[in-house]
Amino acid sequence: MKNDMKKRIHSAHLVLVLLMALWCGTCFETKESQRQMEQTEASQSGSGAGNAAEVKRKLMYEAMHTPLGKYPKTVTYTLGKIAGANNSNLPVGNTYENNAYTRYLKEVLNIQNEDVFELQDGNTYEEAVNVAIEDRDIPDVLVVKGRDNLLRLIEAGLIEDLTETYEECTTDTIKEMYDSYGDSLLQSATVDGKLYAFPNTVIDDGAPLLWLRKDWIEKLGLKEPETVEEALEIVRAFVEQDAAGDGQTIGLACSTDVIAGADQTYGVDSAFIHAGAMPCHWILDESGDVVYGSVTQETKEALSKLRNLYEDGILDQRFLLRKTENIDNLLKTGHCGAIYGRWWAPNNPLSAAYSVDSNAEWKPYLLDKEQVNETQKISVFESYDQWMYVVVRKGYEHPEIVAKYVSAIFDQSRYANDASARELNDYFSINVDPTARPLNINVDYEDALYRTTEHIQAALDKTLDVSELSGLEKSYYDTCKSFLNGQLTTANGWAAYASRIEAVGELQKAGIRSAETLPLENVNAEIPQELQELEKEAFLQIISGEKPVDYFDTFVVEWYANGGKELTEQVQNAYESGKD
Fold first, then answer.
1. H/E run at residue 78
2. Taking the CB of residue 400, how many other CB atoms lie within 10 A of it?
3. Angle at 539 between CA 260 and CA 235, to 5 degrees
4. What is the pLDDT of residues 119-166, one digit of tens each?
5. Terminal Cα-to-Cα distance of the chain (whole angstroms)
6. Which of 115, 122, 254, 464 is buried most, with the most CB atoms less than 10 Å from its CB?
């Protein structure tokens, strides 16, 4: 139906156009509304101001009750903006109020953000949000972190009920995307049957991969690894044979956070996955009971292996002293040839290293695939403590604006082959960070990563016609093809190919999929700061050899004694209640 959009732009009379605009599907709304407004301007000189006012009224009604209807006059909304590092890698001259996203939204919907504050995600942004809530003076549109803050806003009566606007002003595709996560995601934003926010979606991004300098492997005359043990021996060779060539080669990089999770790099999560452990998560054990993944015997086994790697010089010997910026610099200077990272590691941090030395050939390896798949099947709970939600201020004239934004950015621009979205979609291939969007959430299918790569690879293999690609896929296809042909030699070109084709390709071949998360409701399952610090200190002491491996048992006892036992019981009770 979307491909027929252009056929609907030839009606001759204003009355007929208005009738069509009221009744046609959302896929035709954007261009139809634009044509109507052009005729409105003509009617002002021909039929008089009264007729023009009626036309504008009807256009405004359409805009307020459909996903893609365009407002007849610009609608502005104040925004609390989550900014990104380095201005989100926006092209020079672009700002958070004037970039490809905002220009597209202005053209398609005629909306414009006015940022009340622009702060990077973290304590500073959360403090600003907290002050706004306490002062009962929030912007028209706001992204809040954590379901607890969402509930605060609901209880304070500060935000709009978005139930009706979700039904009216999101496309069928957006509804399908949310449905792909089951009922729990939208339910996390629902109280007493009313939807109060649009939640972020977190796509399945598989498992971490081991990224190695393949050019170093070849330089030292080694074979590419097929097992974890072979890979670790390669890292040992990097250090002992000084692959960097100046006596400063380090081993496997490791941050002091140890666990990177889904949105950071330099963790050693894979060491835990290979041991069947899921630290930092509430999980179901083999008996079906709730347990915190950091206190299991599998986690102890992983820490023991990491300790051995440290003693053998395979793990960076100075990891306790490293900050993220320091590890970044070691990649750029060519002193580190091994990191664990997600499929997107070429975009950040490896693209920066490629920019300095394009001969540094980083390649992803997914090893011990059977164990990885088994660990990925562990049932993990999601309490939405750190989830992003978009809310609308109570009393704002256009509460539908968020639903329309989501429909335009995450459906229309991706799938409608809209020429006006080309600049926006090109942002992905030039490594502009998603925080450049006005609203720092993503809405997509749960398996979007694999769908997209499958389509891009098929187009490269000429088994899928390029015309069938979405706007986003076409942008990646063009970049990957140019990189493979040698026409594009930039870091962004390499990053697009290495991430979307090589890394995701590894995950696809292994059939890596995460188990569906289990919702946790009516319980605060967040680990208190005191227990987080206890955990981090114990992990670092065991890995570095400051404490023996069996100290883990002492840590577990202390963890339960300092509130962990009571917290576990609360989570268990919440889980049992949710099953009823």
1. strand 75-83
2. 25
3. 65
4. 988 778 999 999 999 999 999 999 999 998 999 999 999 999 999 999
5. 42
6. 254
- DSSP state letters, 252-265: B---TT---TTS-S
What is the H or E stretch that residue 578 is in? helix 565-579
CA distance 415 to 473: 9
Predicted TM-score (pTM) of the model is 0.82
Burial label, 420 (beta-carbon count in 10 A; 0-12, 13-18, 19+) = middle
| Tokens coding 258 | 């140890």
pLDDT beyond 70 at 542: yes
Given a cut of 60, is residue 506 above it in pLDDT?
yes
Specify the residue for token string 């330099």. Answer: 266
Q: Output the pLDDT for position 49.
A: 64
DSSP summary character for residue 191: E
Q: Which long-range contacts (CB under 8 A, 24 or more apart) does 186-195 make?
A: 187/519, 187/521, 188/147, 188/384, 188/387, 188/519, 188/521, 189/147, 189/150, 189/389, 191/151, 191/154, 193/163, 194/161, 194/163, 195/161, 195/162, 195/163, 195/166
- Distance separating alpha carbons of residues 295 and 303, to the nearest angstrom: 11
Mean of pLDDT over the chain: 90
| Residue the block writes with tokens 């001759």 | 12
Identify the band that residue 36 occupies on the pLDDT scale cut at 50, 70 and 90.
low
d(CA 339, CA 23): 55
For helices 529-544 and 551-559, give the axis angle rounded to 10 degrees: 180
Q: What CA–CA distance (Å, rounded) separates 317 from 80?
A: 42
d(CA 296, CA 556): 8
Return the CA Rg of the chain: 26
Neighbours of 247 (CB within 10 A): 7
pLDDT at 397 over 70: yes
**Whole-angstrom Cα distance, residue 174 to residue 451?**
16
Residues belonging to the chain: 580
Query: Are 67 and 376 contacting, i.e. CB atoms less than 8 angstroms apart?
Result: no
Pairing of β 75-83 and β 111-120: parallel
What are the two backbone dihedrals, phi and then psi, of residue 346, each rounded to the nearest 5 degrees? -60, -30
Q: From 445, 441, 446, 453, select the one nearest 513 (Cα to Cα).
A: 446
Cα–Cα distance between 221 and 396 in angstroms, integer? 66
pLDDT of residue 3: 39
- Strand 518-519 and strand 381-382: the pairing is parallel
How does DSSP classify residue 95?
A: B
| Cα gap 472→410, rounded to integer Å | 10
Q: Which of 329, 271, 326, 335 is nearest to 304 (CA)?
A: 271
pLDDT tens for each residue of 71-100: 999 999 999 999 998 899 999 999 999 999
In terms of DSSP H, where are the helices of 66-210? 100-108, 123-134, 147-155, 163-169, 172-179, 184-187
Q: pLDDT tens digit string along 371-382?
A: 999 999 999 998
Nearest to 309 by CA among 94, 52, 543, 482: 543
CB of 260 closer than 8 Å to CB of 267: yes
Position 571: which residue type?
V
